[in-house]
């Protein structure tokens, strides 16, 4: 029984409405190789996503699962996003944590799930090796792509 009172500060209702809108947007205008959806109908704040590795990268043709968790303050705070699939990448640690500016200090309320998916897919093409979470991967990306691809 939720009231329609607008005086409440995030009661979860606005985040659910926003996520419902984003889900419709993703279904109506899907991006190639990207998808995301709520894990269950009961909780729209936990999503899983799939990112397909871009052509011409070491990840070409691979599919990676990610988990997205939205706080009651979304879209004013970035969701928590992690790789669930094992990921060898300069900007991803062994636990699946991601170093990406738009998920940290560069987050903006104009960003959405599609922005996040596109940014992660782009990160697979062009890692930010000046700020690596996996220094070994960053070193190999820059100096030995053959060895990088083996990992």
TrEMBL record:
The active site is at residue 99. Keywords: ATP-binding, Nucleotide-binding, Transferase, Ubl conjugation pathway. Gene3D superfamilies: Ubiquitin Conjugating Enzyme (3.10.110.10). Residues 14-151 form the UBC core domain. The keyword ATP-binding applies. SUPFAM superfamilies: UBC-like (SSF54495). GO terms for biological process: deactivation of mitotic spindle assembly checkpoint; ubiquitin-dependent protein catabolic process. Pathway: Protein modification. The keyword Hydrolase does not apply. PANTHER family: UBIQUITIN-CONJUGATING ENZYME E2. Belongs to the ubiquitin-conjugating enzyme family. This is LADA_0F07778g1_1. It comes from Lachancea dasiensis. The lineage of its organism: Eukaryota, Fungi, Dikarya, Ascomycota, Saccharomycotina.
């Amino acid at each position: 029984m939720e009231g329609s009172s607008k005086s409440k500060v995030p009661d979860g209702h606005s985040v659910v409405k926003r996520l419902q809108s984003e889900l419709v947007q993703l279904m109506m205008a899907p991006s190639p190789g990207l998808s995301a959806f709520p894990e269950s109908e009961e909780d729209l704040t936990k999503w899983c996503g799939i990112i397909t590795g871009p052509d011409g990268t070491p990840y070409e043709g691979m599919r990676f699962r990610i988990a997205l968790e939205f706080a009651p303050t979304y879209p004013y705070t970035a969701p928590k996003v992690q790789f669930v699939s094992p990921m060898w990448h300069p900007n991803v640690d062994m636990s699946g944590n991601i170093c990406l500016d738009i998920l940290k200090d560069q987050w903006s309320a104009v960003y959405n799930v599609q922005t996040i998916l596109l940014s992660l897919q782009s990160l697979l093409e062009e890692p930010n090796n000046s700020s690596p979470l996996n220094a070994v991967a960053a070193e190999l990306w820059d100096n030995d792509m053959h060895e990088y691809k083996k990992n």
